[in-house]
Amino acid sequence: MTPTAAERRATRGAPPELDPLFDPDSVAVVGASPDSFYAGNLVDNLLDYGFDGALYPVNPNREEAWGRSCYDSIEAVPETVDLAVVSVPREYVVEVVRAAGDRGVPVALVITAGFSEADDAGAALERDLAETADETGIRVVGPNCIGVMAARGATLTSTCSREPEPGGIGLVSQSGALAFTTFFERAADRDLHFSHVVSTGNETDLALTDYVAYLAAQDDVDVVCAYVEGVDDPDRFMRVAEEAVRNGTPVLTVKIGQSELAEAATLSHTGSLTGDDDAWRAAFDQAGVQRVPDIPDLLASASAHTAYDVPDGDRVCIASTSGGLASLLADMAAERDLALPDIDGATEQSLLDLDELLTYGELRNPADIRGYGADALPEIADVLLGDDEFDAYVFAIGLSGVDDRAASIAADLEAIVETADKPVYVLWTGRKAPERTGETPPVARLRESVPVYEDPGRCLDAVASTCDYAADRDRLLDQAPRAQQPATAESGTTEPGTAKSGTAEAGTTKPAAPGGRLADASELALPRGRVLTWREAESLLDAFDVPMVETRVVTAADEAAAAVDSMAGAAVLKVDSSALPHRTDAGAVRLGVESAAEARAAYEDVVSAAREHVAAGEVAGVLVQPMVEDGVEAMVGVAPGDVFDSLVTVGPGGVLVEALDESATLVPPFSRTEARRAVERTVLVDLLKDRRDGAPLRVEGVVDLLVNVGRLADAVDDVAELDLNPVVVTEDGPVAVDALVRTDD
């Protein structure tokens, strides 16, 4: 039985077989006509740019086209082709694709527009097209797709104005126009070239993630770039991207559509803190995907990954012909967390001894070699490249790139870059336009062999991109793949090596990962569609080793008095009611209760306050808890996401949630390493370490708690949101003193 598109997408492992798309031996173009802009230009480009396979025009209204006989239908073509290009009116597309699928054609490239992007009728046709792909097993690119290109294969698009040259960038774009008219053309103008370009169209079958998986597995792809508007299966995208990074292929993306807060109505602080863009930021970070702001930044960083080996670290040495440029680069390096170790010892002295350098006293990093230093670049490079304190180098030239002196500088830089055993980046900020029309200036000739950056910021972005990739790859290799998470609950344990399995039935949980107390999915059933009472929430949280403050649930004033009497120190009384999730706002909380008499009065007060808002039968009781003081308040929570099923957030708690408005988001499942990095991205880590009134508190305790909450979020499908606020971190570890848990309907 042929697997459906959904089943194919869900398959982990080998990427889709797309060689027939990018490098077909035979192509049938259905709707082929020299008079058609799209089909006509596509065939012209295919032939003009070197395709030497079999081409079959299919058009029942023509006898011949491009000197070839036309066929009435895909069935009439004398062989089963590798690829069918479909450019017919939309009402015929499904019929043509079905015929191709029944014939055994592996891939159809649907150029035709007018589907879900157009109207309801088009959306219905697109659903039929998806069903046809499922039923016949043909892979469908598009519809509404502007085409694809492989520099060592075929060019199948109407909008490619020049023959592609082989390069190391694989590009996947959810904007067809941007793919070729902007990305491709702009890069070619800069002597930067692609191995593959694909516009994904409406993604009725093959989706962006499929192309990323395919490209990352190709030997001629050094870096995968993606222009992303949205992803249907974001968790699979994370798995595929993470696998690419782990296996040695960087993934860079421009993600548009930064939205406001998630639309889902939430009760918790967590939900109010987390929006779609926070989720994507977290997802990219966890998967090792680098997000860049725009197209020039994407191309600048991608060029570095095609030209240079991965640096061993982030220690950068900068040599600049301009002192002002050197200072600017120093600030920019700091903004990008690049290290600038001192130039000292024998290295500094060797540079000071060079007669060509008019430098006195000392050299710093960045080194101001002045304009005279441009005439001694080989000597300067010999000294700097011999110093093992640096992982990468930037030579910044603030001089003209078009005069006779520039020719010598360019030749020296080319030799330095090619012979260096570490990455050497070239920044050239001087004049680029030649004096005479048609003349190729030295700086342009240099750009034909090595990347030349004109903007200081983009140059250091490229340096940082390669350094960050090295760090991301190493981090991912040190932990279990995403498919084998979540992490264990035990403090300080290594990542588990087994994948979770199974799905949750309504009202149940999946088995907890090792370290939790939940052994069987049937062990814990949750009520649906409401806020849980304390006992219900406590049972859930205890199953995932989430530490809760000692709590007694009482239903009478005398019970409250007895509970307070048995506690050492002051107590807190608060109403327990599913109908009153924000009891503090209702005045249904009393702090600092120290005696039995105070407890009786407090009990009556909080119950009375609650009954002003909810019916008597909706009050489950009153919680009596010891006051937990002398600690740092944190917040950990789970919120629904528009893109991802759930998001986990950590940050300062209590009143600091709104005061500081600082938190970090994670997409479950996540590892201990990712949990620790999230905590360290917030001011919470400083609050724990730099306490005015006590010794530093362990960050690892919060990491343990965050990991356990992440396991809960990943395992329990029915939890819509969870808010542990505050969690008081003490010398004995964190303890949640309040919990709000709401389940899905």
Question: Secondary-structure blueprint of this entry?
Answer:
Blueprint lengths: L4 H6 L8 H4 L3 E5 L6 H12 L5 E5 L5 E2 L2 E2 L13 E4 L3 H14 L3 E4 L9 H17 L2 E3 L5 E4 L4 E3 L11 E5 L2 H14 L4 E6 L8 H9 L6 E6 L5 H13 L4 E5 L13 H5 L2 H12 L2 E2 L3 H13 L8 E5 L2 H13 L9 H8 L14 E2 L8 H9 L6 E6 L6 H16 L4 E5 L13 H6 L4 E2 L2 H22 L56 H10 L8 E3 L2 H9 L5 E6 L12 E5 L2 H16 L9 E6 L5 E9 L5 E7 L3 H5 L3 E3 L5 H9 L3 H6 L9 H17 L3 E12 L2 E4 L3 E4 L2
Parallel strand pairs: 1-2, 1-5, 5-6, 6-7, 10-11, 10-12, 12-13, 13-14, 15-16, 15-17, 17-18, 18-19
Antiparallel strand pairs: 3-4, 8-9, 8-11, 20-23, 21-22, 21-23, 24-25, 24-27, 25-26, 27-28, 27-29
Helix pairs in contact: 4-5, 7-8, 8-10, 11-17, 12-17, 19-20, 22-24
Largest sheet: 7 strands, mixed
Overall residue-averaged pLDDT value: 89
Strand order of the largest sheet: 9-8-11-10-12-13-14
Portion in helices: 25-40%
The radius of gyration computed from the alpha-carbon positions, rounded to a whole number of angstroms, is 31 Å
